[in-house]
Design goal:
Structural class: mainly alpha
InterPro entries: PPase-energised_H-pump
Main location: membrane
Mean pLDDT: 85
Distance between the termini: 48 Å
Enzyme class: translocase
Number of helices: 22
Radius of gyration: 25 Å
Strand order of the largest sheet: 1-2
Number of strands: 2
EC number: 7.1.3.1
Number of domains: 1
Low-confidence stretches: 41-46
Shape: globular
Strand content: under 5%
Transmembrane segments: 6-25, 85-104, 116-140, 161-185, 300-321, 380-404, 425-451, 457-477, 521-541, 561-580, 636-669, 725-744
Order of helices and strands: HHHHHHHHHHEEHHHHHHHHHHHH
Amino acid sequence: MEEQLITAEAMILLSATVAIVWAYINFCFVKRVTISGAFSDTGESSALLGDGDGRSASEIVARLTEIYEAIYEGAESFLTAEYRVCTQFVVAFTILVFILIGIGTEWDTTRAGLSALSFALGAFTSMASGYLGMKVAVFSNVRTTVSATPGPEGWTRCFNVAFRAGAVMGFALCGLGILVLYGTAVSYKVFVYPNPDDWVKLTECMTGYGLGGSCIAMFGRVGGGIYTKAADVGADLVGKVVHGIPEDDPRNPATIADNVGDNVGDVAGMGADLFGSFAESTCAALVIGSSFKDFGWSALFYPVVVSSVGVFVCLLVSFIATHFRPVKKERDVESALKIQLVASTALMLPVVYAASKYYLPEQFEIGAAVGNRMVTLYPWSAFVCVSAGVVGGLIIGLITEYYTSHSYAPVRELANSCKTGAATNMIYGIALGYKSAIIPVIVLAFIVYGSFKLCDLYGVALAAIGMLSNLATGLTIDVYGPVCDNAGGIAEMAELDPMVREKTDALDAAGNTTAAIGKGFAIGSAALVSLALFGAFVTRIRYASNDELFANGVNMLEPVTFAFLLIGGMVPFAFAAMTMKSVGLAAMEMVYEVQRQFDQKPHLLDANPAEPPDYDACIAISTNASLREMVAPGALVIFTPLVTGIIFGVNAVSGLLVGSLVASVQLAISMSNSGGAWDNAKKYVEKASPDSALKGKGSDIHKAAVVGDTVGDPFKDTSGPALNIVMKLMAVLSLVFSDTFFYFNKGKGFLNL
C-alpha cells in the first residue's frame, strides 16, 4: 500500500505538471506565428491581400493589429469589470460560508475556516482559468487569420494555430485544477487532519472548492452569455436583416463587441463551467468515498487519479491532429476534431482499467445510500462505472451532432422549413430540440441505473468523473471554435482576400459541429455531477443524523419533499426566462444603438466609409447590460436552496434538488440543440447557390433562417449552457451547508416541518 501511495501522489502531481508544461509548449508554438511575419513573403502577402487591393503589407499589418487590439481591449475591460464584481462576491460569500458552517458545526472554527478557504481557492482558480482562456484565445485569433494561406500548407497552419490555442486552455485548466485541488487536500491532511479517522471532515471541507468554482462559472456563463448574444443579435438584426451587409462587416458598429463576446462567453464561460464540473464531481466522489480511510489515501483519491491519467491520454491523442493526420483540405477538418473525441474515449478504457487494478484494493466496502448496509466493491466494478461515463458521454455527443449538424437530415429539414418563412422555422426548431432530448436522457438513465447497481452512489460519481476524464480534449475543441470564428471576423473586417474567410469559415463550421458535441458532454456530465452531489448530500445528512429519521435516506413521498419537487422543477424555467429576457433587453439596446449610428451617419453604409463606426458604444452596452443582468439569475440559484434548507429543512431541499435536476437536463438539451440547429440551418442556406431551392444569401429564405439563428443564439449560448450550472450549483451548495440545514430542528427547518 505504501508503494501505491507514493505512485498515486506521483501520478497526480506529474500529470498536473505535464499538463501545465504542455500548455506552455503549445503557447510557444502559437507565439511563433507573427502578424508581420505572414507578410514577409511576397507570394503569401499578395494571396492574403487579394488581387488589386491597392494596400501595402504595412497598411494591412496595421489594420490587423488595430482590430486585434480592439478585441483584446474589449475582452480585457469586460473580464476586469466582471471579475471585480466576482471578487466582491467571493469575499462576502467566503464570510457567509464561515458563519453558516460555523453555526451548523456548533462553531468548529477549523472546519468552517477550511471550508471557506476551499471556497475562495475554487473561485479564484476558476477566475484564473477563465482569464487565461480569454487571453490565449484573443492572442491566437489574428494568428489563425494570417496563417490561412493558399494550398494544403495553409489548411495545416491555420488549423494547428487554432487547435494549439485550444490546447493551451484545455491542458492549463486541467493541470491547474488538479494541482490546486490535490495540493489543498494534502495541505489539510498534513497540517490539520493527519488521522485517517478525520478524512471525512477533510472531504467535507474540500466541497467548498467545488462551490467556489461553480459560483464563478454561474457568473461567467450568464454574464458572458448575455454579453456575446446581445452583440450578436444586435449585429445580425440591424446589419444582415435590415441593411443586408455581410456578417462581421467593419461598417457594423456591433462587430467588435460580437467578436469580444466570443472570447468572454464561449471561452471564459465554457472554461469556468467545465472547471466547475471537474471540481464538483471530484468533491462528490471524495465525500461519498470518505469511508475508504481503511484502504489508504490512494483509494480515497482514485477519482483524481482517473482525471490524471486522462491528461496523458489527451496529450497523446492531440498528436493525431497535428502530426499523424494533419489537416490538408477542408473535409479533413471535421474528421480531425471528431477523431480526437473518439480516440481519447477508446484509449481511456484500457488506461482506466489498469489504474483501477493498480490503485484500488481487491475488495472494499462503502455504506449504501438506502438502509444500514454495506455494498462490496471491486476494481472491475469501479472501472465499469467510469467506462459507462466515458462511453456514454461520446454517445450523447454524437447524438447531439446528429441533431445539430447540417450534414444530417434534421438540420436540412429545418433549413427547408425556412421556405415558408420564419414561423415554420421556429416551429420545426423547437420540435427538433424536444426530440433531441430523448436518446441522451435514456443514455443517462442507463448510466445511472448501472452505476448505482454496481457501486451505489459512488458509482454515479465515478460515471461523472469518467465523462469528464478527457476534459483536456473537450476544452481544446471548445476553444478552437471561437478562435476560428474570431479569425473569420478579423479577415472580414480587414478586408482580406475571400479565400482567407473561406478557410476560416470552414474551420469554424467544423468547430460548430464539435462544439455541439462538447455541449452534449457538458450537459450529460452536469446531470451526473448533480446526481452525485445529491448522493453526497444524502450521505452527509445521514451521518449528521443521530436518530432514525434519515437512516433510510430521503423519502420522496413526504409531503414537504413532494411539494418542493414541483418547486425545484420550476426553478430552471424561471432561470431560463430571466436570462432570455436579459439577452432580449440588452439586444434591444444594441439594435437601437446600431440603428442610431446608421441614421446619424448614413455614410457608414458606403462601400468605403470615411470614418469608422463607434465600436466602443456597443462594447459599453454589452458590458453594462451583462454586469447588470447577471445578478438576479445568480441570486435565484444561490439563495433558493439556502433559504429552503434553513426554513423548510433537508427534506424540502431533497425535493428541490431532484426537481431541478430532472427539469434542467431536459431543458438544457432541448434549448442547446434547438439553438445549434438554427445556427447550422442558417449556414446551410448560406452555402446554397442563388439558383438552388434554398436561394442562398440575401434571399427571403435566408432572412427567415437568420431570424431562427437570432432566436437560437440565447438558447444555445446563454440559457441552455447556464442550466448546467443551475443543477450543479444548487446541489453543491446544499452539500456544503448540509450541517447548517441540520442545525435547525435536526434538519426539519426553522418551521419544523
